[in-house]
Amino acid sequence: MSIYRERGERLRSLHQQAELLVLPNPWDAGSAKMLAALGFHALATTSAGLAFSLGRRDAEGAVSRDEALANARAIVEATALPVVADLENGYGDTPEDCAATVRLAAQVGLVGGSIEDATGHADAPIYPFELAVARIRASVAAARALDIPFTLTARAENFLHGRADLDDTIRRLVAYAEAGADVLYAPGLTTREQILAVVEAVAPKPVNVLVGSPSLALSLDELAQLGVKRVSLGSNLARVAYGAFLQAATGLAERGDLSGARQALPFDTINDLFKG
């Protein structure tokens, strides 16, 4: 059995267990190794975290598919954990673009990935319903044709693009589930009622919820009680790291203050995380 088949099967089993699956999001090989050392069972890439590490804004098209997959490969090779990827909008508008991205994702060792229905265009931020469903159907077909298990997540992006339309979001997620998506995801949900409505609408398929934002006050235990099977943090951990860096560097630049720098993780501690 190939290591990627084993990882794909392990990821599938993690979605079927009773416990909530927590997917932290590394943005490079180093952060992936640190998360693995802490005992997490699987990892997910972050498009925003990658963009920030490249000195770019997070925006559709700011990072190319080749760059994203090269980053994903580095994360895949850093640990023995299953890795899923933020594949944005499939790096193209057509169903064929999405299918090609899924096939390329598997080639770098990814065993799952998400395709979103955001276009990247401010004047029309969300793909029309029929096209959005066709894109997920093509992604699922590509995933099923692979020789490894590949967990396909379908994302409904309304709430991240000024369209707080729960009915349309649920309509899309139900259609994506019927098109064969393994996991359903609507980033930006913030209330118990919204999350429960989504969980009930697509049951028994698992739902992913984006956590880490102050606007979502529910704990992991509360989300699990609502029937959520998986949570991820998106760019949150990358922003935590960059925030600590910026705070220490600002104190140094503005006041000659070394107190932030003195809070750094000890050299030997971090160095030992990366051995082997």
UniProtKB/TrEMBL annotation:
InterPro entries: ICL/PEPM, Pyrv/PenolPyrv_kinase-like_dom, Pyrv_kinase-like_dom_sf. CDD domains: ICL_PEPM (cd00377). One of its GO terms (molecular function) is metal ion binding. Gene3D superfamilies: 6.10.250.2750, Phosphoenolpyruvate-binding domains. The keyword Metal-binding applies. Keywords: Lyase, Metal-binding. SUPFAM superfamilies: Phosphoenolpyruvate/pyruvate domain. Pfam families: PEP_mutase. It comes from the Bacteria. This is 2-Methylisocitrate lyase, PEP mutase family.
